[in-house]
Design brief:
Serine Threonine Protein Phosphatase 5, Tetratricopeptide repeat; about 120 residues; mainly alpha; about 65% helix
């Protein structure tokens, strides 16, 4: 019986390790229904799908989820670019500038994009 004590200890340690690895880490950003909606727009472009994507963009920007409570990276830039393409340059520019404010590492890309668009 004494030879089973080390085995029990190892099994208990492995069990504790296994159970602790099952814990989920909270997401930094809430993406909502973005993935499915953007895929739908790419797969079957239609005005209805585009309007759904715009609703998703607005929801992600106005009511951010996740631990950081910020819109996910790239969302302001994507929505801003879409607005510019739809003939709303000032609204689009503001969102592109907001992307830079939220994520300064995107500034070179966004500034290059702004130069090409304006």
């Amino acid at each position: 019986m004494r030879h089973l004590y080390p085995v029990r200890g190892v099994l208990c340690a492995l069990g504790a390790l296994l159970l602790s690895s099952c814990a989920t880490t909270p997401s930094l950003y809430g993406w909502g229904n973005y993935e499915a909606t953007s895929y739908a727009v790419a797969k079957t472009p239609s005005e209805q799908n585009l309007q759904r994507l715009i609703q998703v963009y607005e929801e992600l920007i106005t009511h951010p989820k996740g631990t950081r409570q910020l819109p996910p990276p790239g969302i302001c830039a994507e929505y801003g670019y879409l607005l510019i393409k739809q003939g709303k340059p000032e609204e689009g520019r503001k969102l592109l500038e907001r992307e830079i404010a939220l994520y300064p590492e995107s500034s070179i890309f966004i500034q290059t994009l702004l130069k090409r668009l304006f």
